[in-house]
């Protein structure tokens, strides 16, 4: 089958997307700050160093292995035929980024987008494993994500794989639409967070026998909220660049994409503010941050597709769902997720993908989105569990009890993030 | 350290089985041994005491491999079945029959949701046992 070739990019579009992708790392900085702020003070330095190490590890693993598996849009791929239809399931990019400088502009920018996206995806489970996952294990998990799982999904969704081709092969709208990584980055990150939390277990004292879950609030609300503002700048860049790269949106449509991103986040934070105000009497800062991020995550799927009013509504619903889901996961399901990544990135991403299908004008788009979600839940989650379980056999995810007791900073780095301050002990949560 | 504890528990279990066999060998059934032994491993089959001893020895005594973990694995194994159901919908139904296609894909997602619920329940089961 002839690959679905992207249209030729003009010089002005190339420069615009390149500049946007140079701003996109602000999303990584924002998520790193949020991860650190939502953890405990005795693990802050280890957490932020982990974020940095994970960005580095994912870049290396993706360059060495992942880029070959992901391939490029319009490039070669491994295809098998089933029921008379082609299923492009694996990319066949050049080894070790050979010939990158001579590649078409679209392929080069697509690769840069994927480098940043894989780093963002790998930061998500690191926040969920805060205060008990070892630095080496976090890097190993990130390497596995960047080398195997992310490239596979990136090929399916962005680089002409079978999900992107659903419109051609099965007449399902325009195929699976995920312009800024709601599925490939955020749902993948949320599912990875769930698996990491399952394998590593809860923090010591989080779920005492025969009692309610212990509240372990984040240690720095300023980091969390400033991280949200940084994330907005990065998300605007990701969403606009993604719309150009993967949906071939015209330049005139880009301001609406940016407005939709902002409205989605704003609607979400307003809704979370109201929900927490009603439930607890006062708005909760960390849950509002989670709501803001959930709005941004949902916009990753929808910003380039919907109208501003629809964008606002999508954000409002994400903002109502997120604090409730965070509470359910912690209190009813005994999942200790300090950063709320499973609710924010996992559920927020799924909601965005469904909304993008439901609000798209093309017939069959919703079914295409549902098939994509089925692939994420039915294939990616068991694959992630298997791979992380193997990683855990080689590099145990969880720190030993003594290390958890003294804090990850002292145990892993030999020094704390705040040497002049008194650090909380376990007893202070009682 | 964990292994040491496991071996210690294994030795205790063997000692218990040895004593138990010597006292109850004649009226084994009436003693109701499955209720005395390791309540959470209700699947230990009946048989001659010597085989029971071997079975107990071969099982990972003291390690967490209870109902919760099995439920989690079962749930995760069910999830790919839901995915293949969704793919089957695309292959089996033509594009003109969009309603049937959509319903079948939803069924696939429902199977995946069921698998996820079982896996989460398994996690809760295991969590409840390992609470401090």
Report low-confidence residues of chain B grouped into runs of 5 or more: 1-8, 20-48, 51-64
Shape of chain A: globular
Structural class by secondary-structure content of chain B:
mainly alpha
Radius of gyration of chain A: 21 Å
CATH homologous superfamily annotation of chain A:
Ammonium transporter AmtB like domains
- Secondary-structure-based class of chain A equals mainly alpha
The total beta strand count of chain B reads 0
- Shape estimate of chain B: elongated
**Radius of gyration based on Cα positions of chain B:** 23 Å
CATH class category label of chain A: Mainly Alpha
Structural commentary:
The complex is a heterodimer of chains A (430) and B (132). With 430 residues, chain A is mostly helical. Chain A contains 15 helices and two strands. Chain A has helices at residues 11-23, 25-38, 44-70, 105-128, 135-157, 166-170, 182-200, 221-247, 254-280, 285-302, 308-332, 341-359, 365-394, 401-406, 408-413, and strands spanning 77-82, 85-91. Chain A has a two-stranded antiparallel sheet. In chain A, α2 packs antiparallel against α3. The longest helix of chain A has 30 residues, at 365-394. Chain A is globular. The N and C termini of chain A lie far apart (63 Å). Chain B is mostly helical. Chain B contains six helices and no strands. Chain B has helices spanning 2-24, 28-31, 33-36, 49-58, 67-92, 98-129. In chain B, α1 (2-24) packs antiparallel against α4 (49-58) and α5 (67-92) runs antiparallel to α6. The longest helix of chain B has 32 residues, at 98-129. Chain B is elongated. The interface between A and B is medium-sized, with 34 and 32 residues.
């Amino acid at each position: 089958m002839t690959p679905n070739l992207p249209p030729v990019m003009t010089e002005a579009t190339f420069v615009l997307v390149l500049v946007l992708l140079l701003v996109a790392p602000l999303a990584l900085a924002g998520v790193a700050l949020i991860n650190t702020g939502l953890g405990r003070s005795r693990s802050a330095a280890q957490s932020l160093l982990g974020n940095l190490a994970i960005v580095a590890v994912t870049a290396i693993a993706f360059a060495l292995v992942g880029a070959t598996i992901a391939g490029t849009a319009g490039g070669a791929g491994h295809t098998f035929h089933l029921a008379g239809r082609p299923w492009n399931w694996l990319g066949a990019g050049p080894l070790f980024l050979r010939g990158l400088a001579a590649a078409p502009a679209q392929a080069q920018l697509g690769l840069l987008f994927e480098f940043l996206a894989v780093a963002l995806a790998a930061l998500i489970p690191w926040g969920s494993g805060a205060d008990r996952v070892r630095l080496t294990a976090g890097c190993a998990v990130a390497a596995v994500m960047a080398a195997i799982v992310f490239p596979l999904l990136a090929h399916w969704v962005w680089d002409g794989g079978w999900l992107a081709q659903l419109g051609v092969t099965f007449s399902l709208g325009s195929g699976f639409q995920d312009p800024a990584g709601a599925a490939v980055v955020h749902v993948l990150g949320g599912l990875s967070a769930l698996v990491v939390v399952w394998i590593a277990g809860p923090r010591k004292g989080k779920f005492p026998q025969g009692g309610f879950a212990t509240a372990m609030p984040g240690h720095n609300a300023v980091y969390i909220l400033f991280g949200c503002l940084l994330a907005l700048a990065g998300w605007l860049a990701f969403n606009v660049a993604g719309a150009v790269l993967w949906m071939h949106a015209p330049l005139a449509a880009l301001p609406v994409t940016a407005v939709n991103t902002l409205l989605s986040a704003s609607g979400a934070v307003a809704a979370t503010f109201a929900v927490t105000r009603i439930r607890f009497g006062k708005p909760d800062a960390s849950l509002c941050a989670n709501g803001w991020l959930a709005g941004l995550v949902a916009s990753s799927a929808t910003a380039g597709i919907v109208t501003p009013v629809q964008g606002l509504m999508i954000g409002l619903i994400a903002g109502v769902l997120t604090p409730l889901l965070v509470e359910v996961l912690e209190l009813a399901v005994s999942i200790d997720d300090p950063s709320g990544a499973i609710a924010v990135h996992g559920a927020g991403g799924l909601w965005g993908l469904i909304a993008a299908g439901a609000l798209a004008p093309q017939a069959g788009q919703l079914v295409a989105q549902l098939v994509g979600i089925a692939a994420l839940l039915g294939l990616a989650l068991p694959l992630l569990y298997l791979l992380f379980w193997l990683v855990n056999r080689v590099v145990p995810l969880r720190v030993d009890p003594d290390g958890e007791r003294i804090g990850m900073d002292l145990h892993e780095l030999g020094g704390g993030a705040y040497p002049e301050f008194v650090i909380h002990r376990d007893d202070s949560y009682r | 350290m964990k292994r040491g504890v496991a071996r210690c528990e294994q030795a205790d279990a063997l000692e218990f089985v040895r004593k138990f066999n010597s006292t109850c060998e004649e009226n084994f059934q009436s003693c109701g041994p499955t209720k005395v032994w390791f309540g959470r491993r209700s699947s230990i089959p009946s048989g001659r005491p010597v085989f029971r001893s071997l079975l107990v020895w071969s099982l990972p005594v003291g390690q967490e491999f209870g109902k919760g973990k099995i439920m989690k694995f079962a749930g995760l194994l069910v999830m790919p079945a839901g995915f293949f159901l969704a793919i089957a919908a695309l292959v089996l139904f033509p594009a003109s029959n969009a309603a049937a296609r959509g319903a079948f894909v939803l069924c696939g997602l429902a199977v995946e949701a069921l698998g996820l619920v079982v896996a989460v329940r398994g996690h809760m089961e295991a969590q409840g046992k390992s609470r401090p």
